[in-house]
Design brief:
Layout (H helix, E strand, L loop, with lengths): L2 H12 L5 E2 L9 E2 L1 E8 L10 E3 L2 E4 L21 E8 L2 E7 L5 H11 L8 E3 L5 H4 L2 H7 L9 E4 L7 E6 L5 E4 L5 H7 L2 E4 L4 E3 L3 E3 L15 E4 L1 E3 L2 E3 L14 E2 L8 E5 L3 E6 L6 H12 L4 E7 L7 H14 L3 E5 L4 H10 L12 E5 L1
Parallel strand pairs: 1-12, 2-19, 7-8, 8-9, 9-12, 20-21, 21-22
Antiparallel strand pairs: 3-6, 3-23, 4-5, 5-23, 6-7, 10-11, 10-15, 13-14, 14-19, 15-18, 16-17, 19-20
Helix pairs in contact: 2-4, 4-5, 7-8
Amino acid sequence: MGAAALWTTIGGLLGSAAPARAQKLSVPMPEVDALTIQVITDSFQQVFAPPMRLANVEVQPFSLGLTDKPPRHVLESEWGVSALMQTQSGTERRSVLVDFGYTPETLMNNMAFLRVQPDMLDAMVMTHGHYDHFGGMAGFLGASKGRFKPGLSLYLGGEEAFCTREIVVPTSPPQSYNFGALDRTSLDSAGVKVVFADQPTLVAGQLITTGAIGRRSFEHVTAPTRMSVGVTDGYGCFPQQMPEAKRSAQSIPDDFSHEIAPCANLRGRGLIVFTGCGHRGIVNTLKQAMAVTGIDKIHAVMGGFHLAPEKDGYVQDTVAALKDLNPDFVLPMHCTGDLFARLVERDMPGKLIRINTGTRVTFNA
């Protein structure tokens, strides 16, 4: 198929959701006066956690909101991540939705509880193409149609995010199961613009994404999934938009070259980096953020670090490397695992903040 015919076919499948490529970051990393991260969905919930303040950080757990009648609806937790990053710079405020959790039912239930409305959003970011980070997207977009700001964009790390995936369960013998693919039609129907942010990209004027995360430490890619290239019934990734080495790939191990992480630069304190799963390695991710912003101070790192399935020695090495980077605060979520949290608590005293579904964390300059 010639190039013109190829793009005619792609255009027919994508409609108005044909991806744009982000421009190379050409401005200094903007500073913000405050960043609030509202956890919409996480894998855990702790209703008895008290509110707390550590230096410039305020932590507000979700309250059950009990009344004299038994509640009929509750905040729900499930395997996956979704969070709202809200920045303030002077009088300007921005709201960016990061990831969409596993199911639309949980996502929309929790957004309603936490009063997160579609018309609040200035942008959306998808950290990587795993179902527990985009599973709620299509249903959310469909239910919110007509309520978004005009020109709302979804930033993701490239065409690879659309590839179909299977998850491998380490039984004997190993078993593989379909792990889904992004629904392009739902993006088109909702009028959402897709922007490939495979290089550092300014988002909503106050955040950036890291671009593709290079290998800058001992860390290896941690992933239980395999990826295939091609489009079937409108789902999947277009071979000609993939790197040449992957254009005919069928069921290859994920290397997450499309994974990205959104970051904020808190005035006078340094970078705050949010990771969906950190499949490329949490230390690699932080070093990438430092390299592309030119800022050598990490104020906080928050999100999934995908260390739960790793051996104890690897987790210990990760904590040691993280300690060398000396972030002010560490906020693990989702797939990080309890060993990591215990080691941070022991080896980096005063830096661990435990959070979960519904927690609201505010970082003040």
